[in-house]
Each structure stands twice: as C-alpha cells, then as structure tokens.
Amino acid sequence: MGGKSLASQISEKMVELSSGVLFLLFGIMSLLSGPEGQL
C-alpha cells in the first residue's frame, strides 16, 4: 500500500486519536503489570 492512498482514506485526526488511545492503553497496562513486567 502506498502512503498516498493510505493518507487519502485516513484523516490526520483519526491517526492522532488512535495513537493516543494506544498510548494510554499501553500506559495503563504497564501500570497494572508493575515493575516485573508480567501480564
């Protein structure tokens, strides 16, 4: 898939939103798992 065709289908705000949600999700998961890093 080319970047141009991908960019025409997905808006910039959608990418920002999904990356923000993923960031928060991984942050919460790491907080819950603790320093050992076991989920």
Automatic annotation (TrEMBL):
Highest taxon of the lineage: Eukaryota
Residue spans crossing the bilayer: 14-33
Record key words, sorted: Membrane, Transmembrane, Transmembrane helix
Protein name, UniProt field: Uncharacterized protein
Originating organism: Aegilops tauschii subsp. strangulata
Lineage: Eukaryota, Viridiplantae, Streptophyta, Embryophyta, Tracheophyta
